[in-house]
Write a structure and sequence with these properties.
The chain has about 400 residues and is an alpha+beta fold. It contains eleven helices and eleven strands. The structure holds 3-thiaglutaryl-CoA (TGC) and flavin-adenine dinucleotide (FAD).
């Protein structure tokens, strides 16, 4: 570049010009999902949040776009790259964390469990229908008394002849009451195993958890399994021990690294726009130094988090992503997204506490995202263990 040539000023949102690091196909995925969110989610999501619902049709609509199990290969799944899957999560969560959650649980937890640990018969039976969104899945790991420490789970599957008989309670299960199939993790005489449980099986029931103030555009349920009798082939044959469910969590946590950036981007964009137009003391509030400091800090964390997501995405596609890298990304990006959301809310003043603007909805949602898929404390301890070699969980 010659000295006299003018460098284009950076964009106020994609300040670091990260778009240039994406391939044509990746940008196409991003634009497709962004359009879907603009047309199908944004006009309604405040009402869904207020009513505590997520319309069932969203499942088939996401399926038509190839967003359910999108980074899985075969069985009608598109086999997209990790970066493309991440970009889709980012755009879905720019709409609402509940919509991204739906896709995460369906594709990265329920479908991935079958894809990674299931038999060919289980894959053929469930994956194509789930990819189309015609069948909905949920993932039951957490119990009322075992959240961060799933190793202690009490759900138990005992042998009875060739059958399994499953008893236990699972708590906080996304999609629970709308699921056609639940992936349930339970102890056995041989350690923790996974089971594919059709929701119509006698003894299986799901009750919704009400009065949530976060992730309201998402169904969260308690599952009760009372003498649920399953055939021998309901077990996921390849999953042995806690590594079974934890491998699925890596996939969903990876999506959250990106999704959190989507929620943060919406909050930043909303606050920036508001700051440029809201007048106080006869000038836009964006002209005050204190507001500019908030916006500049938001911009910096948004850029750093986006770079991190992309870097980890490329590492995933090169097969170099370790689970502790995922913890690094989930911990940082959700924590910073939540700070951005809280800061954005202050810029909106009184308007910041209503559903007329998306900020407090994202802020409240991110409280759940900070907790599920491993709390911020759990990810801190995973990083601590990785760098010191010393486990500090107990
Ligand atoms: P630990 O002894 O460390 O490990 C047991 C076995 O698992 C292996 N392992 C992993 N494998 C794959 N990926 C990982 N990330 C793994 N981490 C560990 C490990 O190598 C070992 O294998 P093996 O073959 O030797 O048996 O297990 P621990 O009991 O000490 O637990 C470690 C800890 C605390 C990190 C783990 O329990 C944990 O991550 N706890 C957090 C629980 C959690 O994240 N729950 C999420 C529930 S699902 C959810 O929240 C969905 S939200 C849905 C939405 O998006 O809407
Ligand atoms: P606890 O484990 O009781 O933790 C409480 C506090 O103690 C946290 O701050 C935690 O970090 C801290 N703590 C715990 N252990 C330690 C330690 N060793 N050192 C320091 N601090 C510690 N689960 C599923 O299986 N499937 C789902 O689909 C699902 N969806 C969810 C949807 C929503 C909206 C929510 C809120 C949760 C969902 N979960 C799901 C459950 C989620 O994974 C758990 O809530 C999470 O793992 C934390 O468990 P807990 O709530 O029991 O908290």
């Amino acid at each position: 570049m010659k000295m006299h040539e003018k460098i284009a000023p950076p964009d106020a949102v994609d300040f670091l010009g990260l778009d240039a690091l994406l391939s044509h196909e990746e940008r196409l995925v991003r634009e497709t999902v962004r359009d879907f969110v603009r047309q199908r989610v944004l006009p309604h999501v405040a009402d869904w949040f207020e009513q505590g619902i997520l319309p069932r049709e969203i499942a088939t609509e996401l399926g038509k776009l190839g967003l359910l199990g999108m980074h899985l290969d075969g069985y009608e799944c598109p086999g997209a790259s990790g970066v493309a899957y991440g970009l889709a999560c980012l755009e879905l969560e720019a709409g609402d964390s509940g919509v991204r959650s739906f896709a995460s649980v369906q594709g990265s937890l329920a479908m991935f469990a079958i894809y990674r640990w299931g038999s060919e018969a289980q894959k053929h039976e469930w994956l194509p229908q789930m990819a189309r969104g015609q069948k909905i899945g949920c993932f039951g790991l957490t119990e009322p008394d075992f959240g961060s420490n799933p190793a202690g789970m009490r759900a138990f599957a005992r042998r009875d002849g060739n059958d399994w008989v499953l008893n236990g309670t699972k708590m906080w299960i996304t999609n629970g009451s709308i699921a056609d199939v639940a992936i349930v993790w339970a102890n056995t005489d041989d350690g923790i195993r996974g089971f594919v449980v059709p929701a119509v099986t006698p003894g299986f029931s799901a009750t919704n958890i009400h009065k949530k103030l976060s992730l309201r555009a998402s169904i969260t349920s308690e599952l009760v399994l009372q003498d649920v009798r399953l055939p021998d082939d309901a077990q996921l044959p390849l999953a042995k021990g806690l590594a079974g469910p934890l491998a699925c969590l890596n996939e969903a946590r990876f999506g959250i690294i990106w999704g959190a950036i989507g929620a943060a981007r919406t909050c930043y964009e909303t606050a920036l726009e508001y700051a440029k137009t809201r007048m106080q003391f006869d000038r836009p509030i964006g002209g005050f130094q204190l507001t500019q400091e908030k916006l500049a800090n938001m911009l910096i964390e948004l850029g750093k988090g986006s770079l991190l997501a992309l870097h980890l995405g490329r590492m995933k596609d090169e097969g170099r992503l370790h689970p502790s890298h995922v913890s690094f990304g989930k911990l940082n990006n959700v924590r910073e997204a939540l700070k951005i959301a809280r800061e954005a809310r202050t810029i909106l003043g009184g308007n910041g506490v209503t559903l007329e603007y998306p900020v407090i909805r994202h802020m409240n949602n991110l409280e759940s995202v900070l907790t599920y898929e491993g709390t911020s404390e759990v990810h801190t301890l995973i990083l601590g263990q990785q760098i010191t070699g010393l486990a500090a969980f107990t």
